[in-house]
């Protein structure tokens, strides 16, 4: 069902290049609708939010308040099984420990001529976290977004989550509590993004908005970008598995399907030097597909975007992997380090046969928010760095200024900026 | 001429809040035009570039080749005065030394249960640098963008610069040579951005595009974002000067005008506890305005967006500064550290009376590409981090997988993701 490509065939390069540019997402043009919603929320604030929630979620805020109460969060948490609560806590602890290592250090120093230079890092004051409703409402994503924000020192993390009929997935509320989310509002869509960016009577605006969402949420994030910061716009997920012949085809099939079950636009790719393994994996995928509750989604993804690529030598997988720049890269080989050394473009690497990508989705400690759709060529997964910002510091005394003044004046004059030149010259008695 | 605000007046808060949200830019809607240009360059490649350059820059690539030759770069460099060349070299060296300290370190480690975790940083393969034409063609900006890319280890830095009639500012070419730019093309506008993002017959595509530009360039960068990475979209520049009474009004006036001369939308703000100083600065601005070759621009900026704010106590300037979140913040006070401790939102801080912001524009060593229009609340100036990306690494053996499997399976099941659960369970003999 999936695409079959062999490096040895004459048309490999052209077919691989075409495969790389396959579009996996229908981009709905919702910009006009979203623009109107944002303007409405800016103009009417809470009243607009109430109207949209009544219309889209069947919610009456005079009955079910917009803000989720402490009591509701407590009750939800109590309703989740202790097995799941313990798993969430283990995940949160591991995420926290790993992300604490990412906290950047200030660097304040004096150079050889006595100029003080520095980089000082501070946490963003307030961050909004968008959590989708329905089946895409993942507690693990709440942890992956909120825990790094808290590790960064963000004092105020505000979560928004649409609640059709008022109900919010209790595990999502439990995860928010464990992660230390400060405020939770029962709103979603472009209107929730607008409320976070511009504020309303009851919601104080944030400085940055993170988290996944549908086409409306993505468009709203793009539109408010500049007024607030945003994280990456996530596309459909993908996994690339590089495997030698000594693998259990069932293990690899399960990994490919774990990606495919996310979304019809997800992509699962196997690269191997063993055609027999590829055939066996293909059969295992067919078998396991029947066992999945989301088999329809997984089957569509595998049929439309799945691929089995046969290379002559496993080392040939490296340049292909760098061009694919996969969100997730599994190295299911005996000597993963030899391949890993050559990998430049990948969101995350899962090393060896005993590291299924799914561990990284939940409890590995690393972040599961990773660059999709080849964007690992230029961007990174979510980290503490996304929740801090750097202020650069410069400090000169009269002596340092005298030393650097002539060069600064020369450059300012060459750029035709008189006031620039004067601002330096006047301090060292060189102004005209 | 500029706005005068006193903290002591009853309507201060409402007037300050209004001042904060003043729009300083006319946002031209050029999206439709830009979309057509990008599609044309994707479809027709070099032929489209040739047509646009003929139309907009009066250039014939069969006479003046699109790519700037080594000989032309050499000749341009030879034509620049040795004073300016030396100043560029000093600036480049200082920028390089400062930015080398920003190179992130890989962090590969094993946790308490033997799980291997890590962050590995690699340089982006290829970066495009947009340089505007005409009067906004600043050699210093070439250094500020290209040097950090080279420090990061980017092997291929490609510069594009529109050249009306074929001519490129020789100092820009000299700066590119000093910074180690690898390829230079005589193209500009949305078509240059499209060529960098998608490639043409003669230009190999890049993975990220940085650098300032007009409304067409900014719109094109937004549209290609996702296919390639982009830097921030720069808005008009601003400076906030916090000053005590013991300042020379002429120094401060020069600093305010150095910002104002950039752009009619630039903003210069003085906050002081001394109304007499504010009055003196205002007079000095009027006097110095007459001396500037760009007096018309500076006067418009100062009249429309300049402000003098009188606070009761200098410490009251700190919360105001955090709300303004200025691109540039000068602390022209006797005890700058006391104020600096409270500053959270600022692109760069210039400490003490002998650190005019202009030093940071050219030769301080820190970057002059900084967050504008209040975006210092959530973003940072350009740094080496903008030219690298992080791959996260996870490595489990059978023992670690057994330990983490139950929690991962519990979370996968709670999210209704069967194949996720199976991908872990099958490896620890727990699969159904």
Briefly summarize what is shown.
Two copies of one chain form a homodimer. Chain A has helices at residues 12-20, 31-44, 46-57, 70-79, 82-100, 139-152, 170-179, 189-198, 215-224, 249-260, 275-289, 295-305, 317-324, 336-340, 357-362, 398-414, 418-425; strands at 3-6, 107-110, 116-123, 126-130, 156-160, 183-185, 208-210, 229-230, 238-243, 267-272, 307-310, 328-332, 348-351, 388-395.
Give an account of the 3D structure.
The structure is a homodimer of 432-residue chains. Chain A is an alpha/beta fold and 432 residues long. Chain A folds into 3 domains: 3-23 and 235-364, Nitrogenase molybdenum iron protein domain (Rossmann fold, 3-Layer(aba) Sandwich); 31-104 and 124-230, Nitrogenase molybdenum iron protein domain (Rossmann fold, 3-Layer(aba) Sandwich), CATH 3.40.50.1980; 396-428, Up-down Bundle (Single alpha-helices involved in coiled-coils or other helix-helix interfaces), CATH 1.20.5.1300. The first copy, chain A, is built from 17 helices and 14 strands. The first copy, chain A, has a 6-stranded parallel sheet with strand order 1-11-10-9-12-13, with helices on both faces. A 5-stranded parallel sheet of chain A has the order 6-5-4-7-8, sandwiched between helices. The first copy, chain A, has a 3-stranded antiparallel sheet with strand order 2-3-14, with no helix packed on it. The longest helix of chain A is centred in the first third of the chain and has 19 residues, at 82-100. The mean pLDDT of chain A is 95. Chains A and B meet through helix 5, strand 3, helix 10, strand 13 and helix 15 of A and helix 5, strand 3, helix 10, strand 13 and helix 15 of B. Strand 14 of chain A pairs parallel with strand 13 of chain B.
């Amino acid at each position: 069902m999936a695409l079959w490509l062999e490096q040895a065939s004459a048309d490999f390069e052209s077919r691989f290049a075409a495969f790389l540019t396959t579009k996996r997402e229908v981009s709905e043009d919702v910009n006009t609708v979203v623009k109107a919603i944002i303007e409405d929320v800016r103009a009417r604030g809470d009243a607009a939010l109430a109207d949209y929630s009544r219309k889209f979620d069947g919610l009456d805020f005079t009955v079910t308040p917009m803000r989720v109460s402490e009591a509701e969060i407590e009750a939800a948490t109590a309703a989740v099984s202790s097995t799941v609560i313990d798993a969430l806590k283990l995940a949160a602890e591991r995420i926290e420990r790993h992300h604490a290592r990412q906290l950047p250090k200030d660097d304040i120093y004096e150079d050889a001529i006595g100029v003080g230079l520095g980089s000082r890092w501070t946490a963003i004051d307030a961050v909004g976290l968008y959590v989708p409703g329905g089946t895409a409402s993942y507690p693990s994503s709440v942890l992956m977004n909120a825990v790094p924000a808290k590790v960064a020192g963000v004092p105020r993390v505000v979560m928004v989550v649409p609640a059709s009929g008022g109900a919010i997935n209790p595990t999502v509320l439990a995860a928010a509590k464990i992660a230390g989310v400060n405020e939770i509002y029962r709103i979603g869509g472009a209107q929730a993004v607008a409320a976070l960016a511009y504020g309303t009577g009851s919601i104080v605006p944030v400085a940055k908005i993170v988290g996944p969402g549908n086409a409306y949420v993505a468009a709203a994030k793009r539109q408010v970008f500049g007024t607030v910061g945003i994280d990456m716009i996530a596309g459909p997920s993908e996994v690339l598995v590089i495997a030698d012949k000594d693998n259990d085809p069932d293990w690899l099939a399960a990994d490919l399907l774990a990606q495919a079950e996310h979304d019809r636009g997800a992509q699962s790719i196997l690269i191997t030097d063993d055609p027999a393994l590829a055939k066996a994996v293909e059969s295992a995928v067919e078998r396991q597909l029947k066992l999945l509750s989301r088999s329809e989604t997984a089957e569509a993804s595998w049929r439309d975007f799945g691929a089995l690529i046969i290379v002559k030598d496993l080392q040939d997988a490296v340049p292909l992997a760098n061009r694919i720049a996969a969100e997730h890269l599994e190295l299911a080989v005996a000597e993963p380090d030899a391949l890993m050394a050559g990998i430049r473009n990948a969101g995350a690497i899962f090393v060896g046969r005993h590291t299924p990508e799914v561990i990284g989705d939940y409890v590995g400690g690393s972040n599961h928010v990773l660059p999709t759709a080849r964007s690992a060529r230029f961007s990174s997964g979510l980290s503490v760095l996304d929740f801090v910002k750097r202020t650069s510091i410069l400090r000169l005394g009269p002596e340092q200024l005298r030393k650097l003044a002539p060069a600064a004046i020369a450059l300012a004059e060459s750029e035709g900026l008189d006031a620039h030149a004067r601002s330096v010259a006047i301090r060292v008695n060189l102004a005209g």
